[in-house]
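User: tokens in, sequence out, please.
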């Protein structure tokens, strides 16, 4: 599949799709051709070799004039990569009698606090750890997971048994509530259990920084679908016009990985569904990009995996786990 393959946007957020369409309209190109050219230029600028096309016919040139050398893309206010200031924990203030202050009940409103202004190159990132009621937190629109209908049962059981020790990452909204940047599954699990308060790191991240923070945490957990990862890259490069090199530096991935992951959006909705549901492993997912017929390759992978699973099931059914 080449960089100019037919791109699918049916599951992309409306904001990212609108930004991509506006950028394509400015150049006078169809959306799929514009995105293909974006990836091709990015790959050429960084010396990344895209996979070979499965069809011998080459796409027609964009214009009859000679193509000039690829120049670095102009970036609208590239995201400064700044170290995060270690969060400071707000300790409870002792009363006159010396007794510690108990956490606020879930029904007690959170006192208003000053609005945190968006970050700028001269303003350091702020971070403060607070205990916040889950009901005062909203899911928000900067998360990078697409399958968050409910928290996994294993996570719910772990938090119910051991409590929530890893704070979620949020930012304050103009109405005084909080928006989740990272940690939606922990937040959903806490609500499911009925915890009155959970630890949260409150930051003043702007939208690009918030999406990057969410993407970085989910990549660190190793449970993010490659399709969701690709949609996050597309949003960062189109909606926020970030320099691909800044994105790679922030998430700790090289340009080759980002380009190949973006190419996954050119697979059919059926294959992207297999990837998002976890039926195809990460290695199998990226192998589809080099397959002459990705649909047939995916069916063969699933058939082979089904045979392995059946063999394991039969072995497990034998007493003592011995082979029959």
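Assistant: Sequence out:
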């Amino acid at each position: 599949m080449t960089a100019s393959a037919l791109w699918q946007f049916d599951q992309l957020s409306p904001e990212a799709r609108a930004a991509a369409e506006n950028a394509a309209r400015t150049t006078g190109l169809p959306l799929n051709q514009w995105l293909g050219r974006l990836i091709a230029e990015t790959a050429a600028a960084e010396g990344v070799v895209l996979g070979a096309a499965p069809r011998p016919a080459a796409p027609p040139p964009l214009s009859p004039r000679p193509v000039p050398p690829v120049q670095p893309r102009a970036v609208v206010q590239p995201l400064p990569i700044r170290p995060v200031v270690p969060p400071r924990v707000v300790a409870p203030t002792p009363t006159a009698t010396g007794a510690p202050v108990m956490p606020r009940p879930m029904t007690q409103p959170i006192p208003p606090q000053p609005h945190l202004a968006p970050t700028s190159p001269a303003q350091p990132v702020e971070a403060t750890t607070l205990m916040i009621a889950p009901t005062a937190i909203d899911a928000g629109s900067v998360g990078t997971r697409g399958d968050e209908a409910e928290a996994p049962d294993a996570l719910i059981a772990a938090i119910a048994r051991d409590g929530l020790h890893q704070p979620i990452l949020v930012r304050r909204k103009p109405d005084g509530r909080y928006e989740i940047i990272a940690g939606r599954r922990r937040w959903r699990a806490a609500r499911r259990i009925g915890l009155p308060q959970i630890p949260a790191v409150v930051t003043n991240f702007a939208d690009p920084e918030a999406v990057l923070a969410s993407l970085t945490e989910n990549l660190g957990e190793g449970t993010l679908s490659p399709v969701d990862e690709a949609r996050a890259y597309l949003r960062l490069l189109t909606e926020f016009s970030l320099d691909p090199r800044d994105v790679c530096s922030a998430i700790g991935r090289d340009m080759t990985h980002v380009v190949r992951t973006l190419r996954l959006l050119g697979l059919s909705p059926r294959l992207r569904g297999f990837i998002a549901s976890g039926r195809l492993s990460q290695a199998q997912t990226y192998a589809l990009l080099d397959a002459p017929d990705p649909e047939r390759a995916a069916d063969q992978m699933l058939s082979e995996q089904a045979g392995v699973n059946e063999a394991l099931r039969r072995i497990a059914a034998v007493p003592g786990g011995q082979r029959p």
